[in-house]
Fold this protein.
Amino acid sequence: MLRIGVMVSGGGTNLQAIMDRIEYGTLKNCCIATVVSSNSRAYAIERAKRGNIPVTVISRKNFDSEEDYDRALIEHMKKYRVQLVVLAGFLSRLGDSFIQEYRNAIINIHPSLIPSFCGKGFYGIIPHQKALEYGVKITGATVHFVELEYDSGPIILQKAVEVLPDDTPETLQKRVMEQAEWVLLPEAIRLFSEGRLEVNGRKVIIKN
Ligand code: GRF
């Protein structure tokens, strides 16, 4: 059984997608051991509670340094014997020691086709605003392993989503979530849990 730690900051629809797939039995041999929220007002906390998943608020602002924050997060994940960390709309920055501790075992979902519309500052609605401003016809979502630089780690899965002529950032965000994010993130977890992801430099090989 793969023990997952999900880190959230907001609405938690990606967390919900994982919870649903586990409940429906289409994501097997996985359990969410802990949810960590960076924000005490995140709606994701309610979702975790409703699913009877232990949820803890750990905020960067309560720590003097990035090292202390990382240490607390590592201790927390160890306490819950977490084997895979999933960033599902997590907005705090993770430090080097956390990333080293869980090397190739932290995955993030980003709402664009990396390397477009990503990096520092591209979170929430912003990737969708920028995609519309640029005039792209296709956007999407990416699941990748996490490295220190924002949105820079090896790509696991991507899915394209059409941009429609009358899209607003909000309608585009909704379509990207429904068609790509909620599908890709559980799928990447499934591949990880089956031991099918092999990282080779920048590339992720999906084994049969
Ligand atoms: C998602 O668009 C995710 O890709 C991004 O933040 C949003 C979080 O949504 N990183 P939710 O909290 O899962 O509803």
About this structure: The CA atoms of residues 196 and 208 lie 7 Å apart. The first strand starts at residue 2 and ends at 8. The chain has a mean pLDDT of 97.
